[in-house]
């Protein structure tokens, strides 16, 4: 092991056992979930609380060492892995969960708490959390805030930023900013928690978060629909949004993704016939929302098949066709993942044109599309795309998104995958303003260098 005075100093501050330096200890921190992005870490520091995190960042600042904050490392754009010798700051040891404030409907959670741990904790007190996603067992609160995670409930509750009432974070120089009181109305200056949500670790390391909770609904109804295509899915989605106050989720996928999931999971397709599009819709309330959901669907055209469920086991079985897309895609190869969004009026055009574009420009690649229909958010996954064509094809897809007035990153962030295309959907003044904020909070450029902004 090569001597490293900074690693020695960090070990003295947080404990030798919490500084990982041996090559055999590092791979899990050096490669992202997709296996597409990876690099070498100088070492991994695992502080146990905000004070230890501040000590690590202060020592790194004094040494001029760059830092990559990392939570559950479930990101899909390479923003949580080192690129070339940075110190990885892992929050996985920060595991405290405060008591649920039943009067305010709030809870404080450390950054390293997983979404599943948070859900279990608050549900025992009669509450739930507004964000849910398939990686709930490994995605952490801090990482979800840093990337402004979305998931399947954005339609009803918004993204992670909307759940954050306050937070504690450590700046690049080791100073701590803290706002954890949970006061719901506070206009005393800039909203720093909202700024740090979605900042991808480029401004500070988030260590604790005060979160808004939602009611724990005891009754749910889920329907999986087989539809003629995206237009029919969009029409059904529009009808459900108008008619179902209890509507919580609207998820779309297609036959190629369904085939992958069924093969990977060893399950049968939901219907005997194949369909142009599939839509999962779920309603939730204190009373059974089945009648409301079925009535809303009664006169919707374009529905070719349907499966309905209210009990947990059957609902989970229907959700598996959508939620197991990511693992099925990853099992089939190393995908190029493009998380994009377009205005709802452009959804049908985008789905059609992106398939035509890919068929012309990357005929050997296997496109798999799925996403959150209510937000016009598509996850475009490309399997088998030749490495020398990744940049060109990515640019073409993101260019199409920009032409349609969309966003090149709907919920995964920019990371190191998309900085080159940031100017497609952000005007120069936007980028200059963001860079000014970055320089103000991190003048030496030590926090997650290379993420969001082109070098």
Question: Care to describe what's here?
Answer:
The chain has 455 residues and is α+β, with helices and mostly antiparallel strands. It folds into four domains: 86 residues, Uridine Diphospho-n-acetylenolpyruvylglucosamine Reductase, domain 2; 110 residues, Uridine Diphospho-n-acetylenolpyruvylglucosamine Reductase, domain 3; 107 residues, Alpha-Beta Plaits (2-Layer Sandwich); 98 residues, Alpha-Beta Plaits (2-Layer Sandwich). 33% of the residues lie in helices and 22% in strands. It has 15 helices and 17 strands. The strands form four sheets. A seven-stranded antiparallel β-sheet has the order 14-11-13-12-16-17-15, sandwiched between helices. The chain has a four-stranded mixed β-sheet with strand order 1-2-4-3. The chain is globular. The mean pLDDT is 96.
Give the CATH architecture of the largest domain: 2-Layer Sandwich
Q: Could you estimate the helical fraction of the residues in percent?
A: 25-40%
- Describe the biggest sheet? 7 strands, antiparallel
What's the number of domains?
4
Shape: globular
Q: Which strand order do you get reading across the main beta sheet?
A: 14-11-13-12-16-17-15
Number of strands: 17
First and last CA, distance = 31 Å
Mean pLDDT across residues: 96
Given the helix and strand composition, which structural class is it?
alpha+beta
CATH topology group of the largest domain:
Uridine Diphospho-n-acetylenolpyruvylglucosamine Reductase, domain 3
The low-pLDDT segments are none
- Please tally the helical runs, counting DSSP H or I stretches of 4 or more residues: 15
Write down the CATH class of the largest domain.
Alpha Beta
- Strand fraction: 15-25%
Rg computed from alpha carbons, rounded to a whole number of angstroms: 22 Å
């Amino acid at each position: 092991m090569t001597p490293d005075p900074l690693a020695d100093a960090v070990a003295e501050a947080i404990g030798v056992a919490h500084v990982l330096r041996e090559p055999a200890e590092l791979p899990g921190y050096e490669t992202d979930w997709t296996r597409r992005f990876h690099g070498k870490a100088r070492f991994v520091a695992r502080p146990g609380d905000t004070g230890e995190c501040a000590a690590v960042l202060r020592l790194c600042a004094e040494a001029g060492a760059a830092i990559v904050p990392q939570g559950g490392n479930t990101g899909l754009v390479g923003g949580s892995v080192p690129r070339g010798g940075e110190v990885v700051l892992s929050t996985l040891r920060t595991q405290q969960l405060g008591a649920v404030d039943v009067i305010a409907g709030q809870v404080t959670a450390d950054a390293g708490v997983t979404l599943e741990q948070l859900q279990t904790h608050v549900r025992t007190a009669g509450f739930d959390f507004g964000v849910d996603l398939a990686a709930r067992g490994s995605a952490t609160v801090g990482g979800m805030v840093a990337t402004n995670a979305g998931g399947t409930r954005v339609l009803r509750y918004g993204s992670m930023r909307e759940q954050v009432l306050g937070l504690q974070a450590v700046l690049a120089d080791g100073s701590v900013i803290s706002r954890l009181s949970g006061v719901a109305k506070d206009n005393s200056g800039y909203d720093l928690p909202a700024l740090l949500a979605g900042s991808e670790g480029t401004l500070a390391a988030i260590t604790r978060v005060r979160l808004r909770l939602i009611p724990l609904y005891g009754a749910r109804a889920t329907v999986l629909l087989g539809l003629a295509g995206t237009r029919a899915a969009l029409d059904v989605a529009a009808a459900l949004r108008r008619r179902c106050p209890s509507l919580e989720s609207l998820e779309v996928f297609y036959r190629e993704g369904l085939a992958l999931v069924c093969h990977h999971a060893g399950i049968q397709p939901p219907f005997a016939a194949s369909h142009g599009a599939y839509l999962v819709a779920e309603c939730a309330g204190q009373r059974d929302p089945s009648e409301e959901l079925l009535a809303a669907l009664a006169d919707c055209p374009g529905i070719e098949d349907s499966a309905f469920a209210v009990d947990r086991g059957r609902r989970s079985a229907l959700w598996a066709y959508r939620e197991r897309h990511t693992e099925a895609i990853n099992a089939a190869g190393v995908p190029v993942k493009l998380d994009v969004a377009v205005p709802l009026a452009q959804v049908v055009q985008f789905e059609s044109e992106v398939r035509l574009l890919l068929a012309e420009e990357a005929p050997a690649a296997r496109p798999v599309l799925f996403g959150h229909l209510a937000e016009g958010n598509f996850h475009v996954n490309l399997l088998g795309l030749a490495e020398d064509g990744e940049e060109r094809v990515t640019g073409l897809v993101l260019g199409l998104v920009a032409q349609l007035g969309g966003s090149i990153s709907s919920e995964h962030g920019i990371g190191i995958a998309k900085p080159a295309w940031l100017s497609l959907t952000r005007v120069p003044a936007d980028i200059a303003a963001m860079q000014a904020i970055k320089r103000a909070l991190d003048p030496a450029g030590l926090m997650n260098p290379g993420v969001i902004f082109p070098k």
